[in-house]
Amino acid sequence: MTLIEEPPDPSHEPGRTAVEPDEMNFEQLEVAGLSQSQIVRRRFLRHKGAMISLIVLTFVLVLSITSIGVGPIPGWWKHDYNTLIASSSNESPTMSLRPSFLGGDGVRIGEHPFGLDNSKGRDIFALTMRGVQMSMVVILVLALLSVTIGVVIGSLSGYFGGWVDSVLMRFTDVILIIPLLLVAAVAGFAYKASGIWSVALILGLFLWTGLARLVRAEFLAYREREFVDAAKGAGASSRRIIFKHILPNTIGTIVVSTTLLMGAGILTEAALSFLGFGIQSPEVSLGSLVSEYQGAFSTRPWLFVWPGLFIIAIVLCLQFIGDGLRDAFDPRQKRIPKRKDLDTSMDANRMDSSANRQSGAGASS
Amino acid sequence: MITFIVRRLVAAIFIVIGASFIVYMLITKAGDPLGFLIEIKDPILREQIRREVVAGLNLDVHPVLRFFRWLGALLTGDLGISARTRLPVSDDIGRRLLLTLKLVTASTVLSVVVGIIVGIVTALRQYSGFDYVTTFFTFVFFSLPVFWVAVILKSVGGINFNDWLRDGAHFSPTVIVLAALVIAGLSYTIAGGPLSRRLGIAVFGGVGMGLLVSYISSSQWMLDPKLGPVVVILLAGGIAYGVTAVMAGVRNKKALYSALTTAGLGIISYFALQGLFDDAEFNIWMLAGLGVIGVVAGVVVGYAFGGFDKGLSARTAGLSAFMIGIVIFVDRAMQSWAEYSSSPVIRNRPIKTIGDRESRLEGSFWVVTNDTFSHLILPTLALMLISLASYTRYSRASMLEVLNQDYIRTARAKGLTERTVVIRHGFRNAMIPLATIVAFDIGGVLGGAVITETVFEWNAMGRLFTESLRNLDPNPLMGFFVIISLFAVVANLGADLLYAVLDPRIRITS
Questions:
Q1: H helical segments located in B279-364
Q2: Half-sphere exposure for B8 (CA within 13 Å, toward CB)
Q3: Which regions of chain A does DSSP assign to beta strands (E)?
Q4: Are strands A122-123 and A116-117 parallel, antiparallel or unpaired?
Q5: Could you tell me which chain A residue has the CA closest to the CA of B149?
Q6: Chain-chain contact of B454 with A275 (C-beta, under 8 angstroms)
Q7: What angle do CA A291, A296, A300 make, to 5 degrees?
Q8: ipTM for the predicted complex
């Protein structure tokens, strides 16, 4: 790939070719003979931001799971997030990424890469990794619950309409209007449920409203389409129409908004924990770590900065993946062709047209 | 139309009542509002307070019945009393509502205006360097936890910035070069046209920025910021010319002359009004009155110039008058900055991180205005980051959608200037969906910014909510809930109606 534009090849001048290359041709050539899922996959894999984010997210996930382990299975990191460690004279992070020939300490991880909290005797790296694991729990539970509830309510409401729609949508409005903070606080006060699972459960049970509305809107549009009429005429049951004919068409909307919802869910969990209505000590999450160490920013910033950076990293990755998925699923999405692509497309066109001419000549002779 | 509104309102009221019932049951379930009585040592006093609270909150009746009593009282406008303070909730909420408005108004207006401008520019320069940089930063802003940013802002703004002011407010050469480079890069990617023109604009912008920052640094401008008559006159002329260039095009002489006349009037009133500004009796209502008079004067000037498009001239002159008024206001406020900053209460650490005002500060209207600004600036920044990102994304998407429409191509084919196509045919239509989004967002604004208020310790609506939750105090919580949900419902209805008014293709049917 060259960055400098090459001078146009005289044989590529538009006047000389039989078929004018344009973006439409380019698009069609690009997707010719592929199934819908293949097109989506291709477009997604081509989205650089989304692919980088996917790799980063996977790395963070693997790091957090393998380093401190899950449940009884130990990880490779020497400290655990909830065991006391001896205080050290130097609390600051020991990780150094500047090689020695640039005047740094050399690339090393050290005893406490993200620093140490002497007053509580905790290793910040292990704490942050635990927080990341908690965020992953939130993501999974939230995605599972909100997709299930949102899709069921949205599709029933959109497909059947009438009083079903009215009742379900008013119910959605009520859920939307109840403050999440209140629900989390009540769960904490009345049922002493302030662990990560209950917070994730509450988020899942209350954050599905946007998804339900989107799915309903899609169903309203697809319900009037001819292929649904055809299916009805052929005697398909409502269940079959919903699951086999309409739902597959809405998969793009669902996947994209769920990805973005996951990011929003992490931020919401962090905010709840920050305000003291989410995860409580001794359990930790990224939000509760930020909350706990907010006073330490000016003196011991590593206590405060690392959990926040991991929140940003995870949510940013989810945003980019969501963006990539939206581009991939959007049929109107057009790729801006580069000169090289247009040339390739033109060559292919020329071959096509010459092949047509030959076959035409063959037929006439 | 009327049926539609009535139906929507009735449905909304039932939703609010239903949700209130659930919220009431939840808060009753959460625990006992009398828990705080343990802290009172004197048994007689404790018993007396207990009786008072039980009677005031109807704690002796069943929760369901209690809810309906509360609802009945609500219909007469009575929100009950707080268990903690035993004072009426409505007084407290009224005070906090004003404070919340103070907190969110600036950030909402600023993020809408800046977000729309940035969004439009990125749409016009799609796939430029500026577009990519903005897109990346909007994603980053979306991913920022507000509390994390707010704590950092509090520390950097409240400690480091004040220390920097104390040390003489000098910029290091690195900062000056960086600022110049950033401006040069931005103007290079925003400017259109051939390479030589873009390079010229970039060099001009970069050098200009570098000189400006060097001047600010060497004259210690940040210690005692001021504009002065020369800058005000230059700004007024520039605003008049710029507003005309965007709204009407400078070839529209009527509009240009009316805007310039307004600028002249503004400059005259700038000198004439200084005495009035210094008056001890000057207050915010007089300020607002002056602002209205200024805008009206601008509109009248525009009409007086006449021509075939009086309305356009009037709008141009009115907008110029408004912006020049802001410049005059800022100039006058800056004149009192030294007095504010050096007052014994402030002790030259002007940027504040706690609360909404310095209660011990005494001074004229302008000193208090400076105090309000220095308390507002950090929370406003924290609140702006996120809403700015979403308005940028929305307006970019909306503008791109509009620019791909057939009527834009028609407008270009007619030979209209690029300005007319973008502003009249593009921008106006792109604003239709955005107007509803803004109306919808304003619906959520009264709920306060719970996290920002917590970090910066503002005692407004958001804090009322978290505090009454912690204290398990039902009446303040319900008062908060009813007010914000009714406001949100009305705002949503307004958003729908606004859409129908702005877009004639939408017809409301009941």
A1: 284-305, 310-335, 337-341
A2: 19
A3: 116-117, 122-123
A4: antiparallel
A5: A308
A6: yes
A7: 130
A8: 0.85
The predicted model scores a pTM of 0.84
Q: Nearest-CA distance from A359 to chain B in Å? A: 39
Mapping DSSP to helix (H, G, I), strand (E, B) and coil, where does residue A121 land? coil
Q: Which amino acid is at B32?
A: D
Chain B interface includes A167 (CB < 8 A): no
Nearest CA in chain B to A314: B143
Q: Locate tokens 């609270």: which residue?
A: B53
Q: Which of B469, B477, B478 to probe by mutation at the A interface, max A CB count within 10 Å?
A: B469
**pLDDT in tens for each of the 365 residues of chain A?**
334 444 444 444 444 444 445 555 666 666 677 888 888 888 888 888 899 999 999 999 998 888 887 777 777 777 777 777 766 666 677 666 666 666 656 666 666 777 777 677 778 888 888 889 988 888 899 999 999 999 999 999 999 988 999 899 989 988 988 888 888 888 888 777 678 888 899 999 999 999 999 999 999 989 989 999 999 999 999 999 999 999 988 988 899 899 989 999 999 998 888 888 888 777 888 888 888 888 777 778 888 888 899 999 999 999 999 988 888 887 665 555 555 555 665 565 555 555 555 544 444 33
Domain ranges of chain B: 2-78+473-502, 94-169+220-444, 170-219
By CA distance, what is A267's nearest residue in B? B145
A205 contacts in chain B (CB < 8 Å): none
Structural contact between residues A174 and B18, judged by C-beta atoms closer than 8 angstroms? yes
Place of tokens 């005000």: B232
Contact A271 B155 (CB under 8 A): no
Residue appearing with tokens 């919220």: B23
Smallest Cα–Cα separation from A57: which of A315, A241, A297, A360? A315
Chain A contact present for B465, CB below 8 A: yes
Q: Is A171 on the interface with B (CB under 8 A)?
A: no
Q: Would you list the DSSP string of A254-297? A: HHHHHHHHHHHHHHHHHHHHHHTSS--TTS--HHHHHHHTGGGT
Residues in chain B: 510
Q: Residue A172: closest CA among chain B residues belongs to which residue?
A: B15
| Inter-chain touch A297–B143, beta carbons under 8 Å | no
Whether residue A174 contacts residue A268, with contact meaning beta carbons closer than 8 Å, is answered with no
Contacts of B471 in chain A (CB under 8 A): none
DSSP state of A16: G
The residue of chain A nearest to residue B483, with distances taken between CA atoms, is: A177
DSSP string computed for B462-473: HHHHHHHHHHT-
From A274, A277, A315, residue closest to B143, measured CB to CB: A315
Task: Read off the pLDDT of residues B158-177 as tens digits, 9 standing for 90 and up.
Answer: 888 888 888 888 888 999 99
Using the Cβ of A336 and the Cβ atoms of chain B, whether some distance falls under 8 Å is answered with yes
Q: What is the pLDDT of residues B473-497, one digit of tens each?
A: 888 999 999 988 888 888 888 888 8
Supply angle C-alpha B483, B287, B336, rounded to 5: 110
